[in-house]
What we know:
Elements: H1 3-7, E1 10-15, E2 18-23, H2 24-41, E3 45-50, E4 55-58, H3 60-66, H4 70-73, H5 84-100, E5 104-112, E6 118-130, E7 133-143, H6 145-210, H7 216-228, H8 231-263, E8 271-273, H9 275-285, H10 287-290, E9 294-299, E10 307-309, H11 311-333, E11 341-350, E12 353-360, H12 390-401, E13 405-411, E14 415-423, H13 426-431
Parallel strand pairs: 9-11
Antiparallel strand pairs: 1-2, 3-4, 3-7, 5-6, 6-7, 8-10, 11-12, 12-14, 13-14
Helix pairs in contact: 6-7, 6-8, 8-9, 9-11, 11-12
Amino acid sequence: MSSNETEKTNVFDVADGVAVSHNTSDIIQANNEFLESIMESVTNAIFVIDLDEKFTLMSQAGSKITGYTVEELMGQPFSVLMEPEKYAEVNKRYVKAKVIGEIVSHYETEFIHKNGKNIFVSLNLAPLYENGGIVSVVGTAEDITERKLLERQLLQSQKLESIGQLASGIAHEINTPTQYVGDNARFLQDSFGDFFQLIEKQNQLLQGAKQGNVSTEAIKGVEETMEEIDIDYLLEEVPKAIRQSLEGVARVAEIVQAMKEFAHPGVEGKSPVDINKAIESTITVARNKWKYTADMETNFDPDLPKVPCLAGEFNQVILNIVINSAQAIAEMMGNESTQKGKITISTCLRDEWVEIRIADTGPGIPEEIRPQIFDPFFTTKDVGVGSGQGLAISHSIIVDKHGGTIDFETEVGKGTTFIIRLPVDVKMTAEE
């Protein structure tokens, strides 16, 4: 059959008993127009990348999101939309899609708009098969810039709220060592006056000895002064006062440094983070939130590798969970209880993951609410005590921003353990 004959081939449908003839090429054209109409009506960008990593198709939505015309993107490499570091991560997933057919869902990264600004997108990549083989990769990109900005604002708001809640406690924590530094300083000031009196008497005795005329009165004066100032007491207590003052100053410095590291980690992007040190700083900052209701125990793996993290946001996760644990214990013990619960934080390396476990001896989580624990605005606390954002934000930080996992084990009446797992960048760790 010739091509002309093919184009004229009719397809017959039966509708209400009447045969209706359709030209095959018209049907194909109509279907194509229908599919194109659907593709262009979707607000997410739809695109196809060939096995050489070049665009072979882009929807108009992609043009709106990136600022480039469809014509400008055709034949261009996928990498044209990303910074090298971002593309390196996306390319790993693209390669898996085109080689082994792995589907990538909701991977968050950044595109560079034609105007030079960065935009946040959520990517989906899937292999496109033809005759049993993968011939290209089809993808979608959703512009989530507004959502990410709102998330950042919410995170910053919650962080400021946390710092506000901690402020009075931190002031108290600093005030305690400052008080005994001040008390010891006044004691040392008074003691110096006593020593000065004794030195004067001893100088008189020394002058007499040099002249060969040591009087009984001079000797008696030294003895009386030593008894009056209680020299044995001073010799015992002055070193203690100095040591305690140094400890107090060190404690204040520790709290200030911990607060600085918690509030201003110094790096906005991911950087190698000493997880043990980060947790220790956060525990110190939050001390006033847990010390009245729980004893804190840490079991850190000293050989833990550094982990690529957003330090400030990781600190926020630890703070959220520690405060939750302390509040759960307080709720179970009651306000009048003199007994304390226990919070245990441990770290270890499991395969290529750093695992952090935060366990408490609180009441545990009832079975009926366990599926909602990480839902936004879900809280079991009284109005004004919890906003319901802590665990939801923690989940977003660990899962979406770090590619990790956060889960929990719980038993009613015995307590809850939150388990955070963060991927270790083996290459980065080896280079350090």
